[in-house]
Design goal:
The structure holds two protein chains of two kinds. By secondary structure, chain A is an alpha+beta fold. Chain A is 33% helix and 15% strand. Chain A has helices spanning 26-33, 89-96, 106-119, 125-132, 143-158, and strands at 5-11, 14-20, 52-55, 58-61, 74-76. In chain A, strand 1 (5-11) and strand 2 (14-20) form a beta hairpin. In chain A, helix 2 packs across helix 5 (143-158). Chain A starts with a strand and ends in a 5-residue tail after the last helix. Chain B is of the alpha+beta class. Chain B has four domains: 49-158 and 232-292, Aldehyde oxidase/xanthine dehydrogenase, a/b hammerhead (Aldehyde Oxidoreductase, domain 3, Alpha-Beta Complex); 162-208 and 304-413, 2-Layer Sandwich (Aldehyde Oxidoreductase, domain 4); 438-480 and 641-794, Aldehyde Oxidoreductase, domain 4, CATH 3.30.365; 483-635, Aldehyde Oxidoreductase, domain 4, CATH 3.30.365.10. Helix content of chain B is 27%, strand content 24%. Chain B has 19 helices and 31 strands. Classes of the chains: A alpha+beta, B alpha+beta. Chains A and B meet through helix 2, helix 3, helix 4 and helix 5 of A and helix 1 and helix 17 of B.
């Protein structure tokens, strides 16, 4: 049965009251019902990671969840990274290191990296490579993405971490 | 009109190649500046077509054939139509008035009958072929309805290889669409006189660009202008707007394409697909916006495939391992239909097979054959990834035959610097071939120490002594870029001093806006961040060449430079006559201000003030055209040919057949790098795709023509784990004489030689020269080669 349900999604600290069918994916609900199109959909089968968002601080594939499963949880998307017009260090590092070309994978990588650095601030280069191999990029060849995330990890450690 | 602000001469011919522009200012050209494109993309504000919506829009979903080859008996839409959410369903009969999608102009005859209609008519020829479209108010409903449409068909035999004898495409029409030939010199005499002959028989597997964004289109009829708008365009908006308008019966001026952000192009996104035409047609017929976004499964079976070629190449050599002639045959798997590229891919493969080698005689035959698989077309470095692979396998075989090093064989055969410009007596894409400039010997001389060649050899020897299967391989390549013949842009300075460059280029993520801004900044004398570059908008500039064939930097960059110089000249002449009492020779524009070069302390006049003074008035009209604006048209004297060497260091696991790429090195001469950071980005990205094609990516079909590679769990693309560190050696030793800055393109250089380098490296690692003939070198295939050598049979 596909009768829409009324649910509330908490995204980037804001409430979104929406009506969605139970089968609607979280990625589609974010993009269509919440108007947050920063999260991209690349495969809908959980491999490419373009749809990565943070759910209670953990990177998840929004295409593999139903929106109704995210009710009551805290979601963070790329639209919530910059604060009061100031870019998140990862966003600035991506620009400085030419870590994006077409940009389609970028939101997913930023959220994956943000969640990883928050949860594992001491992650080493091998660990970073392992985590970042979760997401696909077809343009950059990954080198600049790895460098940017490593730089931010290093600068967060020297500045005492936290954000 | 005449006037002291006569336009900067645009054409470049022998004797005036640098157009009087002999010492271009390079303040920001050549710098690794950050991209203008990035801010919206890192903040989730991209305008990919999936993000766009219009009120009251319909969603279109395609119903696709599940047969590889069958006669359509009927398409049952009754159940689908009964769905309460079904707005409409079309099958072939509903669009019978729309002609098949045509291809670019070509001298190749006989391809017309192989074109694809936007919905199948009497027959389907590949799994994934559109047979119907359904329309609903939301995408989930559209997908539900599409699944209720069923196809009743009579299966026909399938042809799944270009190597098998041709069959019937349609009554009286063979699946061998055309046989193409190229020839110069006396090949047979060369083979008779040869000291020895070497032959290779190699294959490249079917793979393709697979951008991360799936295809999509959003069409809307704007009644205030009677214009049909298509959002989600890319690659060649102007040419495709013209073609689609003709297909659906509208004038070009009543149809506009809009390019927002595109999630990767690689040659496959932005071509004219049946779905794009259907979306436009539906917007007109329903008089509602229509949105179509495919899913990944559809993309993997319906977006253009590429690369599947089988080459048999023979070389005649003298006693010094010098090439006397090359004789090539290639079987090109075109898939089910000839799409917008006609026969360009096999044409390029044949035409570029000789790479950077000096060969006096050549003959090539290409058998272009239709198969019951997804239609094939251009993917980054089309025909040249394949031909470079074949040619380099041949050169490695020559080295093996003569007992020479692989590098020595190249040294003896690469075209020497003094031989450039180097013509070959044949056409590619109906243009004569002339390689403009090059110095391979110098590049090789720089590459070996940059690689640490001697230390590498010692290290590999040590590791082999320890039992590791490690090796190094190289792929030498000549690229082509800067496809002309002409391009034009318009540069305008507004009254606040900000600059707008309107181009007909296309941004597919490569950074074209930033590159054009850098070129304009130096030509005009402003900060590149004060420049906005427009692209992909048929309503803002009448003509455009888009972005493909690595042409944007050279052609659009060439035009941008000329337009910027024209605006600069206009500003200085107007200022000299009406604003500053000084001869124009003493004026310059520096950091956006018109200044006197003989009075360095003075602040000068902001360029925006000059623009304001040029607003329409009797003065500005008497001077010429009002506004601080000018066009620039650039005509290239010929293609620009960058060239390079790829080097791969690999380790093979004998138990699994897995190849680990430990290092990858790209040496590349680009003539003039506008932004080295962006060039490196193109190269590293290209290497990643090249590794995909060499080791992982393949579209596989079962014996009935059912595609088996329809998810990312089947079609494997490199992740960060598969990428080796990529080192880039960028040189500017052979600038192109065909444009003032000496530019050559960068878009395809990272991918061209990867197949060749990887195959050579694996041969070296396993100690079996010539063992690798087929790409991708999957673990299964490599294990079979190793097992066979060991006498183990599966």
């Amino acid at each position: 049965m596909n009768e829409p349900l009324a649910i509330t999604l908490q995204v980037n600290g804001q409430s979104h009251d929406i009506r969605v069918e139970p089968r609607k994916t979280l990625s589609d609900a974010l993009r269509i019902d919440c108007g947050l199109t920063g999260t991209n959909v690349g495969c809908e089968h959980g491999v490419c990671g373009a749809c990565t968002v943070l759910l209670d601080g953990e990177p998840v594939r929004a295409c593999l969840m139903f929106a109704v499963q995210a009710q009551g949880r805290q979601l963070r998307t790329v639209e919530g990274l910059a604060r009061e017009g100031r870019l998140h260090p990862l966003q600035q590092a991506f620009i400085d290191n030419h870590s994006l070309q077409c940009g389609f994978c970028t939101s997913g990588f930023l959220m994956l990296a943000a969640g990883t650095l928050e949860n594992q601030p001491d992650i080493d280069d091998a660990g970073l490579r392992e985590v970042l191999s979760s997401n696909l990029c077809r343009c950059t060849g990954y080198q600049n993405i790895l460098r940017a995330v490593g730089q931010v990890r290093d600068s967060l450690k020297t500045s005492g971490g936290g954000r | 009109m005449t006037g002291s602000h006569a336009a900067h001469p645009s054409s470049l011919r022998e004797g005036e190649r640098h157009n009087g522009d002999t010492n271009p200012r390079r303040k920001v050209v050549g710098q690794r500046v950050t991209r203008l494109e990035d801010p919206p993309l890192v903040t989730g504000r991209g305008t990919y077509v999936g993000n766009l919506n219009f009120p009251h829009q319909l969603h279109m979903r395609v119903v696709r054939s599940n047969y590889a080859h069958a006669l359509i008996r009927s398409i049952d839409t009754a159940a689908a139509r009964a769905h309460p959410g079904c707005i409409a369903i079309w099958t072939g009969a509903d669009v019978a008035d729309i002609p098949p999608i045509t291809f670019r102009p070509t001298s190749v005859q006989g391809l017309e009958p192989y074109r694809q209609y936007i919905l199948a008519r009497d027959r389907v020829r590949y799994v994934g072929e559109p047979i119907a479209v359904v329309f609903a108010a939301d995408p989930y409903t559209a997908e539900d309805i599409a699944e209720m449409v069923t196809l009743d068909a009579e299966e026909l035999p399938v042809i799944l290889s270009a190597d098998t004898p041709p069959g019937e495409f349609a009554p009286g029409l063979s699946t061998e669409a055309v046989i193409m030939r190229k020839n110069f010199g006396d090949v047979d005499a060369a083979f008779r006189a040869a000291y020895t002959v070497v032959e290779v028989d190699v294959q490249v597997g079917r793979h393709s660009g697979v951008p991360l964004e799936n295809r999509g289109a959003l069409a809307r009829l704007d009644h205030s202008r009677d214009v049909l708008e298509l959002y989600g365009a890319g690659k060649r908006p102007h040419a495709h707007r013209d073609a689609v308008a003709a297909l659906i019966g509208r004038s070009p001026a009543s149809m506009h394409f809009y390019e927002g952000h595109i999630g990767g192009g690689f040659g496959v996104r932005g071509e004219i697909y049946p779905e794009d035409v259907l979306t436009c047609l539906a917007a007109v017929r329903f008089d509602r916006p229509v949105k179509w976004i495919e899913d990944r499964r559809e993309n993997l079976m319906a977006c253009n495939h590429s690369r599947e070629q089988h080459h048999v190449v023979r070389a005649a050599l003298d006693a010094d391992a010098r090439l006397l002639a090359v004789d090539a045959k290639l079987w090109h798997d075109q898939g089910a239909y000839v799409r917008t590229h006609g026969a360009r891919v096999p044409d390029m493969a044949m035409g570029t097979l000789l790479g950077g080698y000096d060969v006096p005689a050549y003959r090539a035959i290409a058998y272009v054959r239709m198969t019951n698989k997804t239609p094939a077309a251009t993917y980054r470095c089309p025909g040249r990834f394949e031909s470079t692979y074949a040619c380099e396998r041949l050169m490695d075989a020559v080295a093996e035959k003569f007992g020479l090093s692989r590098i020595e064989v190249r040294r003896r055969n690469l075209i020497r610097k003094a031989q450039f410009p180097y013509p070959r007596a044949m056409d590619i894409l109906d243009h004569p071939v002339e390689l403009d400039s090059g110095d391979f010997a110098l590049l090789l001389e720089k590459t070996l120490p940059h690689l640490g060649w001697d230390a590498l050899q010692a290290e590999l020897a040590q590791r082999r002594a320890n039992g590791e299967l490690v090796g190094v391989g190289m792929g030498f390549f000549m690229e082509k870029s800067g496809l002309g013949p002409v391009d034009g842009v318009r540069v305008t300075v507004d009254i606040q001093g900000k600059v707008q460059v309107v181009t007909g280029a296309s941004s597919i993520g490569q950074g074209v806006e930033t590159v054009m801004a850098q070129i304009c900044a130096d030509g005009l004398g402003v900060d590149y961040r004060d420049i906005k570059v427009i692209h992909g908008r048929t309503d803002m500039l009448e003509y455009g060449i888009g972005a493909h064939a690595s042409r944007a930097t050279v052609m659009t960059g060439g035009a941008t430079r000329i337009a910027a110089l024209n605006v600069r000249r206009k500003a200085l002449e107007f200022a000299a006559q009406h604003m500053i009492e000084a001869p124009v020779e003493l004026l310059d524009i520096v950091d956006g201000r018109v200044v006197r070069t003989d009075r360095p302390g003075e602040p000068g006049i902001a360029i925006g003030k000059v623009a304001a003074a040029l607003s329409p008035s009797p003065t500005s009209v008497a001077f010429g055209t009002p506004g601080l604006t000018a066009e620039g048209w650039f005509e290239t004297a010929g293609l620009a040919h960058p060239y390079g060497i790829h080097t791969a260091v690999v380790k093979v696991d004998p138990d699994t057949g897995q190849t680990i790429v430990e290092r990858f090195h790209v040496a590349y001469d680009i003539g003039c790098a506008i932004n080295p950071m962006l060039v490196e980005g193109q190269i590293v990205g290209g290497v990643a795709q090249g590794l995909g094609g060499a080791l992982y990516e393949e579209f596989v079909y079962d014996e009935r023509g059912e595609p088996l590679s329809v998810t990312f769990a089947d079609y494997l693309m490199p992740t960060a784990n598969e990428m080796p560190p990529v080192e880039v050696l960028l040189t500017e030793d052979a600038p192109s004489p065909n444009n003032a800055l000496g530019m050559k393109g960068a878009g395809e250089a990272g991918i061209t030689g990867v197949g060749a380098a990887i195959a050579a490296a694996i041969d070296d690692a396993i100690g079996m020269p010539g063992a690798i003939t087929r790409l991708p070198v999957t673990p299964q295939r490599l294990k079979a080669i190793l097992d066979k050598r060991a006498g183990v049979h599966a």
